[in-house]
Specification:
Helix content: 25-40%
Distance between the termini: 17 Å
Shape: elongated
Structural class: alpha+beta
Strand content: 25-35%
Mean pLDDT: 82
Number of domains: 1
Number of strands: 4
Number of helices: 3
Strand order of the largest sheet: 2-1-3-4
Radius of gyration: 20 Å
Amino acid sequence: MHSGCMLITRLPVDQFHYRQFRYLNLEDAVAQAKRDGAAVPDTGLPIADADLAEYGISRVSMDYLHYRQYQYTNLKNALAQAKWSEQKKSDVVP
C-alpha cells in the first residue's frame, strides 16, 4: 500500500432484529422467538420477510465497512480511522 492510499471495503449484510436484539443469522433470531413462545413453523423452507414480521423479526440491510482489521457501520468513522492511520504513518521519520 503506498502513502496516501486508504483502502476501505464495503460488505453489504442483512441483520435480523428481534425485540432489542440484533442477529447476523436468521436462525438465531428465529430460535430466540421460539424460546419466547412464537409459533414459528419448522418447514425447512426459507421464511419470507412478510412472515418474519408475524414473529416480530425484521430484516435490516446494512453495510459493514472494513479498514485493515477494523470494522465499522459508519463511513465517517471508517474514514476518520483511515486518515488517522495514514497520518501516523507519515509522522514516522525514517
